[in-house]
Structures are given as structure tokens and as C-alpha cells.
Amino acid sequence: MGENLPDRAKPQERVTYHYFLGLRTLTVLRDAVALVEKDKGVSIDLDHIDFDDKKVLASIGTGRTDGIFQLESGGMKSFMKELKPENLEDIIAGIALYRPGPMDFIPKYIRGKNQSGATTYSCPQLEPILSATYGCIVYQEQVMQIVRDLGGYSLGRSDLVRRAMSKKKQSVMVKERANFIYGNEKEGVPGCVANGIPEETASQIYDDMMDFAKYAFNKSHAACYAVVAYQTAYLKYYYPVEFMAALMTSVIDNPRKVAEYIVVCRNMGITILPPDINQGERNFSVDQNAIRYALTAIKSVGRPVIDAVVEERAARGPYTNLKDFITRMADKDINKKTIENFIKAGAFDSLPGTRKQFMSAYVQIMESIIHDKKNNMAGQISLFDIVDEDQKEEYDVRLPDVGEYSKEMMLSFEKEVLGIYVSGHPLEEWEELWRKGITNTTADFLLDEEGGEPAVKDNATAVIGGMIADKRIKYTKNDKIMAFLQVEDLLGSVEVVVFPRDYEKNSARLTEDNKIFVRGRVSLEEDKDGKLICERITSFDEIPRKLWIKFREKEDYEKSAEELLGMLADSDGNDSVVIYIENQKMMKRLPPNRNVCADEELSGKLSERFGAENIKIVWDVKKD
User: Fold this and answer.
1) Which pLDDT value is given to residue 599?
2) Residue 570's beta-bridge partner residues?
3) Confidence (pLDDT) at 561
4) Residue from 562, 511, 509 nearest 537 by CA
5) How far apart are the two ends of the chain, measured CA to CA in Å?
6) How many angstroms separate the CA atoms of 202 and 177, rounded?
7) Band (624; pLDDT cuts 50, 70, 90)
């Protein structure tokens, strides 16, 4: 199958293969195409897109390949940045190369691609077989061609070698060595030596094939994957909002993966909107060039309820207030838990009132509606039924004047019912410090969907940062205390094991919601997410800061020095102050007795007086 795939096949010749792949990604492609047609009125035939679009290829070469099939692992991102694919053939080769065995050829492949004349061949007969892959053995089909052209194998016998490779039958491969090098007259194999290839050269070529055989990959398989990878990259480049919405729908039952893609969206400049009973759909949807959170992602709210909400809205228009919603959904098995989770998720934010008001009134509204229904069934008339329309508001259930929840409480509710934070994250204000202080994110400890292994390596040293979301205490046989922490960052969470010695040193830091950096040793087990064995813990608030204050000219500073020093004197802390004179490129560090607490309060006062663009707080982070 793969042998008949042309090296420079036309797009329509390539795409016939991917339909055999039973992949979640194919559903993403289908849903993204449907969203594009619904949102932009553009019909896309993925079988006939331009498979040589330089903008799409360049986007892959940036390494920002989150969500791109086969190319979103950490290693693949780095590889694509090095490879900088210029055509589909490069992606096909890249997918086949990034595996144990062929991976050893990556430096040679990139060198051959980037340096004209850098490719060499052990013998002239290899050039027509390996020129397309810069002298590297990348595909099973190339091995079949080598044993045919160099060893004189028949097509059928070369396929026996291919099958032995794919099933890792080393015994067969060892037996074939003599046949390949010296031939086998009885079986009609002339061998390399008879074809003028030196014995030593033939032996080296066979060794290369044996190394490759451990994890052989056929070109037709790699081509299928490459086409799907390119199609996802094409949609992500030209229709990023629709693609990311479809991508998040595909992992809707995996909050950690959704959280990871939300961060990707924000880095792409895509706004994530909370679920909304007047705008939301069952899945993640597009709402004015932003992504609206899926209603079905709300916990304890079944799909039949969501379908009923959407169908009722389509039939009779948007819901006007909380009572209108509850009234219209009263016959649809809506219970108190459902309403409460809608409120906590922010799904009623577009209605009049606050989340705290809704939470205070929804039980009374539901009971009022149930009471009215019972009266109607009994044929009784309520006072509400006989008053004029303009007077009904006086008898309606009013939302109490209780204000709104704090930002922290609203985020906590979102995490409770959605599994992630949507309207913000407790670490957002610390993101700059967090990124500076870590070597790895929690996502690096998760099993990769493609490779089946985390990005981190066993026993490697790593530094993570985040807030303590959960702490479990355990007593050892010697009655000493150790802890198991869940440390959560902007992408997810990872388990940190703190043994007694480190627990004793850090117990004051190990309170829930405290923000910490953890340096430790990676611990991996087969088919499990990685853990971090703690070696050192540092709280965010222990990280020293520098307060930079910029003046254009030295004279500007001298005029304001007395006022500035007076403002600084009102703040007491351990953070140093640096004065920077822009035009003269001069820097002056104030003495330790002028140290301050470089917090938002001080930053705000200085920004108001000297301009926000002239005030900057920099953390002095050390990862070692």
C-alpha cells in the first residue's frame, strides 16, 4: 500500500487513507468544519484544501502545535521547530522519525535537509532509495526496497522481512543477515556481495536496518497521520476559534485537558466565555469570535436537561429572568441541584441579578412555582392571577439585595461544578512569577495521548509551581508525618510526595491554597501520571522582588527624589528598589534600609504619581 504512495502525491491521492483511522481527531475535524459553516458560512472540503500552504507549514514550524494531531507532545513541538517542514513529505517523515529507533536519525535528517551536500550514502545503490529522506532509513517500504535492490530479494521475500520487522521477530532478521550479505543460491537470493557491494558495507547497512526494525513504521501509516495533522493545522491557522471549540468538545469529559486548551486559547488571544443558558449549546460553541463554554460540562446536569433548555429557548425565545427560566423548565425534571450548579457555573450571568442573589432566591422561586401549579390543578385562583399586568411585579418573588460573591468564591464555585476555572484563575496575578520559576508545568507529568508517556523523565530534576489544592497527611511506621499534596497550576495538578524530613522543615508552608514552588525528583510508574518527590519548597511570597522606577532624565529623578523617597518610606519590607535613568542608561540600587514591600498597593501609588509605564516589579527567581 505504502509503496504505491508517490513521494509528491497530489492532495486528492493522499487523503484517501485517513478515513480508515478511528480517531477522536476525525470528530474534531468534522465538528470544526460544521462550526465554520455555521459561524462564517464557509463550506470546507478538507480533501481538497491546499496541502502546500506555506503559512500553515510555517505555523507548524513555530512549534506551537497544541491540538495538532501527532504533533502536540513537548518533544514533537521541539522537533517541529528544528525541522521547519516545507511540505507534507517533511511532516510524513517527521511522524515516522519521532519514535524510538528512527529517532536516532533525526539529527542526520535535519542536517541533510538544511545543508546542501551534507547527505552521504554507503553505496550508490542507496541514493535513489534514501534521497527523499536525506540518507536516513525512515520507512518499512525503504527497507523492502533496500533488500530488493541491494540484496536481490523478490518482492514477496522483501515483504516477509517487512512483516518480521513490524512484529519485531528478531530471529528472522538475524537469519536474513547472511542471505542479504552473501546470498542464498538455493532460495534464489544473489546477495549484496554478488551485486558489487563490499561485505563490510553490506553488514553496516543491515545493522542500520536492524536498529530501525525495532520500531519500524510504514510510510502509508505515517502519510495517513500526516494528512490528519496537516488538516488540523490548517483549521487551527485559518479558523482558530472554531477549531479550538471543536477540540475542547472532544475532551469535554477531561477537565484537565480542557484547562490545558483554555490556556492555549488565551495565549492565542481567544476569549473563553462562561456557560450561558441564553447563548450556550450542548458543546463548546462560537459566540462572536469567542468560545462559549459547553452547557454539558456542568456537573450533575444531564444531557436531556441541556437539550430541553436549548429546545425551549429555540421554540419560545430567550429566558428573561430566573423565574422565567424555572417556570418554563418546571416540567423538564429540573431540580434544585441543577439550578444551583447553573448558578455556580455562571450560566445565569446574562439574566438580571447576581450569582449571590440567584443563590439566595432560587429555592423560594421554585417552591412558589410548584405551589402555583398545585393550585392550578385544583382549580384555585391566586391573587397573582387576578391583578393587572402592571401590578404583578409587586407580587413576584424579588431578588434580595445581597450583592455579589467575592472573586475568590465565584472561582471556587466554578471549579466545583466545571472542574476548572473559567472566568479567571487564582494564579493569574502570579503568572509571570510562576512561569519564571518553573522548569515544568503539571501538564508535563500527564500521560501523553500520543506517546503514552509523560514529557518528564524518570528521576529527572524538575521545578513546578502552583497552589496547594489538597493535602493528605500520613503517618509512617516510625510515627513521623509525611504528606501527599495536589499542587495545581494554570494547566492542571500533579501529586507531590513530601517525606518526613522535608515535611518537618516545610510544615508552615504546607497549608491549602498557599502558593509554592517545589523542586524535586520525578517519579514515573508504567501507565500512570508522574509524581514529584519533594526536595525543596519555597512559598511565592518568599521570592525576593525588585521594584524598578524609571525616569527619562537624571534631572527628572533629582526633582522628584525627595517626594519619591518619602513615598517609599511608608512601605516596609524586604524588596529592593532600583532607580533607572533611561536616556543615560544609568542604574542606581537604593541601600537595604530603603527596602520596601513591593505589593500592588505601593505599585498603584507610584503608578498614579509617576506613570504606570515607569513602574515595574521583577521577581528575582532562581530555579536551581
Assistant:
1) 84
2) none
3) 92
4) 509
5) 52
6) 9
7) low
Residue 371 has what pLDDT? Answer: 74
CA within 13 Å, CB half, 110: 16
Q: Are 67 and 263 in contact (CB under 8 A)?
A: no
- Pure H helices in 419-486: 431-437
**pLDDT single digits (tens) 416-472:** 999 888 888 889 888 989 999 999 999 899 887 655 678 899 999 999 999 999 999
| E runs forming strands in 288-346 | 290-292
Q: CB-based burial of residue 490 (10 Å sphere; 0-12 exposed, 13-18 middle, 19+ buried)?
A: buried
CB atoms within 10 A of CB 254: 16
Q: How many CB atoms neighbour CB 265 within 10 A?
A: 22
Query: Distance between CA atoms of 206 and 208, rounded to whole angstroms?
Result: 5
Residues 6+ apart with CB under 8 A from 332: 305, 308, 309, 312
Residue 171's CB is within 10 A of a number of other CB atoms, namely 8
State the pLDDT at residue 271: 92
Tell how strand 576-581 and strand 545-551 pair up: parallel
Q: Where are the beta strands (DSSP E) in 489-573?
A: 493-498, 515-523, 531-539, 545-551
Q: Which domains does the chain have, with CATH numbers?
A: 2-221 (no CATH), 251-407 (1.10.150), 428-541 (2.40.50.140), 545-619 (no CATH)
DSSP-H helix ranges across 41-114: 54-61, 74-83, 88-97, 106-114
SS3 assignment, position 166: helix
Q: Return the H-helix or E-strand segment holding 14.
A: helix 11-14
Unique residue bearing C-alpha cell 462559549: 292
Cα 147 to the chain's mean position, in Å? 43
Measure the CA–CA gap between 395 and 406, rounded to whole angstroms.
30
Contact 420, 408 (CB under 8 A): no
What percent of the chain has pLDDT above 70?
91
Cα dist. 570→279, 474, 548, 595, 596 in Å? 49, 45, 17, 11, 8
| CA 334 from centre of chain | 34
**DSSP bridge partners of 321:** none
Confidence bin at 7 (pLDDT 50/70/90)? very low
CA dihedral 377, 380, 386, 391 (to 10 degrees): -70
Amino acid at 284: F
Residues β-bridged to residue 531: 495, 523
Higher pLDDT, 352 or 302: 352
From CA 106, how far away is CA 94, in angstroms rounded? 8
* CA pair distance 120, 607, nearest whole angstrom: 62
Q: What is the mean pLDDT of residues 52-80?
A: 93
Q: Which three cell numbers stand for residue 370?
A: 410548584
The C-alpha atoms of residue 588 and residue 580 are separated, in whole angstroms, by 6
φ and ψ at residue 109, rounded to 5 degrees:
-65, -50
Contact 242, 235 (CB under 8 A): yes
What's the chain's Rg over C-alpha atoms? 32
Say which amino acid occupies 277: I
